[in-house]
Specification:
Number of helices: 8
Largest sheet: 8 strands, mixed
Distance between the termini: 30 Å
Radius of gyration: 17 Å
Number of strands: 8
Strand order of the largest sheet: 1-2-4-3-5-6-7-8
Helix content: 25-40%
């Protein structure tokens, strides 16, 4: 499970979260419920966060924004209350990344996602979408490969095996696939982006494929980007817009 320095950098955003915390299948989730508009109760977007988890205000505000667009959204706390703290983004922080990583591997954290899916199915949810950011993409892609979920969006994905995971996705998944990529990304660099286009593009993936590209942005932009930078602001807002449109079309 590899990371890059940009996985741990970024800017904390300002705002007032308006979602609520709920226990779903025994797992804490930050939930965004659309208000004042009709929305399908049997369709859910799973928000699969970066290493800063659902406790980071940036992630909570994104969940709220999806709900404002009429999408019932559940942010899964698969770190069990122990994400990397927001202050670890500060220069000079001595947070032990390796120790944290050892305690939060895929085999440890994936069961939390499965528990939430199972519990929501019991509540009548029949269609699942995912939006995975950085660390979260490593759940979004396997869930689609297993056809547990029906539509996928990932932004600056990390921990994917390229081309193996992409080839498997293309061969077995039925979930339309959106990738929000950027100019500077050690975890999903230009070579990986081009490979994704070769594998999925030109109609090769019948369910649907699209890759957005945001210049002037780097890994983490869609969640922790510096909104004082016009290109990063445009990238963050563009990635959100493309994801909403993708979910509106396919979820």
């Amino acid at each position: 499970m590899s990371f890059c320095d940009d996985c741990f950098k970024g800017v904390t955003h300002e705002g007032t979260p308006k979602g609520k915390w709920e226990k779903i299948g025994g797992i804490d989730c930050y939930v965004g419920i659309p208000s004042g508009i009709e929305y399908p109760k049997d369709k859910v977007l799973l928000f699969l966060s970066d290493v800063f988890g659902m406790q980071l205000i940036n992630n909570q505000l994104l969940v709220d924004d999806f709900a404002d667009n009429g999408i019932l959204t559940y942010g899964v706390d698969y770190f069990f209350g122990e994400p990397i703290r927001a202050d670890a983004m500060q220069p000079g922080n001595t947070f032990d990344r390796d120790a944290w990583r050892e305690k939060h591997g895929y085999d440890i954290t994936r069961p939390a996602v499965d528990a939430v899916v199972a519990a929501l199915k019991e509540k009548g949810v029949v269609v699942f979408g995912t939006t995975g950011y950085c660390f979260g993409a490593a759940y979004a892609v396997p869930l689609a490969i297993e056809n547990v979920t029906q539509v996928t969006a990932v932004s600056h994905p990390s921990r994917l095996k390229v081309p193996e995971d992409l080839e498997k996705y293309c061969s077995v998944s039925k979930a339309p696939f959106l990738i929000n990529s950027c100019e500077e990304d050690a975890m999903f660099p230009a070579e990986a982006q081009a490979k994704a286009d070769v594998i999925f593009g030109d109609g090769k993936f019948a369910p649907g494929y699209k890759r957005e590209y945001f210049p002037g942005c780097k890994h983490g932009f869609a969640v922790r980007g510096d909104m004082s930078d016009p290109m990063v602001k445009a990238g963050k807002e563009g990635a959100f817009k493309s994801t909403v449109e993708w979910m509106k079309k396919y979820l």
